[in-house]
Design goal:
Elements lengths: L11 H4 L15 H11 L2 H9 L11 H11 L3 H9 L3 H10 L7 H11 L5 H9 L4 H9 L5 H16 L5 H14 L5 H15 L3 H14 L16 H14 L5 H6 L4 H4 L1
Helix pairs in contact: 4-6, 5-6, 8-10, 9-10, 10-12, 11-12, 11-13, 12-13, 12-14
């Protein structure tokens, strides 16, 4: 520095430290904290929608978007999932199937969860949970052997899920279930028919050979009557649904819709 020249004095603003970025709020980690968060997020309108679609009380009416946001904060916490399930609250149970560890659920646990909460709203989520664990094929055979009830209904949802996500099961096994559906769907209880039709669609999305078999079976099955109660749900049109899925997935470079589905996060986690 040149002699006699003063060092510049920093301005007051320059000497002030930049504020530290605020930390995001800690995720709820205890049963009490999660139940409080769910209760605050509930709405009467969502509760009405869930009730119309087969949900059962007690519930707060928490949207799927909020459920997903809570899952992203908590991630996997099996002990908390078990505690949430035991509350009997529908919203708590929907979150439980997201944060549970499928590998830690025993066969008895799965049977109990399906018996306690296998209503129409929960079936696809429970099926997704089972399919993510090691007992999927075992429970499929067990539940579809039942004469009726929540296990049988969930079994059809599990069949559809495994058709899309488990590449290790032989196609021949799905072809056999396809024959069973074709033979029994018109005499099956109303609560099973939706799952059976969805299974036909999923089987038709598994491979090119099964696409032909499912399309032919759907044409022979014809129109299926399903009572959806006070909802706007409509019976799926099987053949167009299969064709649309193939066009969509192959346009994205996948060998089949099932291959496309296997590239994605499990349904219970993304929805």
């Amino acid at each position: 520095m040149v002699s006699g020249m003063r060092r510049p004095t920093p301005s007051k603003a320059a000497t002030q430290r930049a504020p530290k970025p605020s930390r995001p709020p800690a995720p709820p980690t205890t049963l009490e904290e999660v139940m409080t968060a769910l209760e605050k997020a509930g709405s009467a309108q969502t509760r009405k929608i869930y009730l119309r679609h087969g949900g059962t009380e007690p519930m707060f009416g928490v949207s799927f978007a909020t459920q997903k946001a809570l899952y992203k904060k908590i991630r996997q916490d099996h002990a908390l999932a078990v505690a949430l399930w035991k509350t009997g609250n529908l919203d708590a149970r929907l979150l439980a199937v997201k944060i549970a560890d499928p590998a830690k659920l025993t066969s008895r646990d799965l049977d109990r969860w399906v018996k306690e909460g296998g209503d129409r709203m929960m079936r696809a989520y429970l099926a997704s949970l089972v399919a993510d664990g090691p007992l999927g094929p075992t429970k499929l055979a067990e539940w579809l052997s039942r004469p009726k009830g929540p296990e049988k209904c969930t079994g059809w949802s599990l069949l559809a899920t495994l058709a899309m996500r488990d590449a290790q099961i032989p196609d021949a096994q799905f072809a056999e279930y396809l024959e069973t559906i074709e033979r029994t769907i018109h005499t099956a209880p109303n609560e099973e028919r939706e799952g059976m039709l969805n299974a036909v669609i999923a089987i038709g999305c598994r491979s090119a050979e099964l696409r032909k078999a499912a399309t032919a079976a759907a044409k022979r099955i014809g129109q299926v009557e399903i009572d959806y109660g006070e909802t706007d749900c409509k019976t799926p049109d099987v053949v167009p649904a299969i064709d649309k899925a193939w066009v969509h997935s192959t346009s994205k470079g996948f060998a089949s819709p099932a291959a496309h589905e296997r590239s994605r996060e499990s349904m219970r986690l993304r929805c």
